[in-house]
Amino acid sequence: MAAQIDRVVSELRALMVSGELQPGERIIELQFSSRLGVSRTPLRLALAELEKEGLLERLPSRGFRVRAFSVEDIADAVDVRGVLEGMAARLIAERGPSHAWLEQMRAIVEQGKKLLESAVVNPRTTVDALAWGQINRSFHELLVQEANNRALASALEHNNKTPLTGPAALTLPITPTFLETSFVLRAQADHEDLVQAITRREAARAENIMREHAYRSRENKRQLIEQIRQVRSGKSSAEPSAMPLLGLNLTVA
């Protein structure tokens, strides 16, 4: 069932970030169960996951509706995520990582390298979106766990409820563009650099890598949102904070 839930989460998320599902629109279980070809159980679990990501809000009268948010909301929250994850990286490097944690992180980095081998040679190669999303989620979750700081973890959990902010909240489109694939390749390089810095107990470097990692994620999202808005509106410029988030295909970082 896990694969089915992942598929439903991905498909619903795509509908919301593309603008096909508008802010304030209700998600009716019977309708979407039929539309997505799944039973209500995986659909309900997928809706709960999207609530955690901040894309949906639960209604008092049962059910969910799509949340409204702006590009500036996302940018601000990603900045905060970078500070908090940078702090996590610094704490781990200062204290020294456990052997078990390092083995897990190295395994995740290796999975990323294997997944992106063909994209390194040809950046126009299609990347497995779900596989990269799972790798990225595991990397960021393990980082926070090893920091072993409940206040930091709680602050991150709250911050990542802003839509499209958390490391698991975005996936690649089915066929990533050249631009999106280049973002993923850089994210993988950051993962490799972070593990190296923590292994060497370079605390300041580790913190800076994660803050830069988040900064690039923020700027990538701005760039992609602006591109899509120009295509949809036919205009050369727009004020991100004043417009609703419409069509969007973004990478995870």
Q: Would you kindly provide a written description of the structure presented here, covering whatever features stand out?
A:
- By secondary structure, the chain is mainly alpha-helical.
- Strands 1-3-2 form a three-stranded antiparallel sheet.
- It is globular.
- The two termini are 26 Å apart.
Keywords:
10 helices; 3% strand; mainly alpha; single chain; 253 residues
Summarize this structure briefly.
The chain is mainly alpha-helical. The chain is built from ten helices and three strands.
N- to C-terminal distance: 26 Å
Secondary structural class? mainly alpha
Report the major sheet.
Answer: 3 strands, antiparallel
Query: What multimeric state do the chains show?
Result: single chain
Helical residue percent band = 55-70%
Tell the overall outline: globular
Tell me what portion of residues adopts beta-strand conformation.
under 5%
> Low-confidence parts lasting 5 or more residues at pLDDT below 50?
235-252
| Beta strands, count | 3
Q: What radius of gyration results from the CA coordinates? A: 18 Å
Strand order of the largest sheet: 1-3-2
Number of helices, counting only DSSP H or I runs of 4 residues or more: 10
The H-and-E topology, N to C, reads as: HEHHEEHHHHHHH
Mean pLDDT: 83
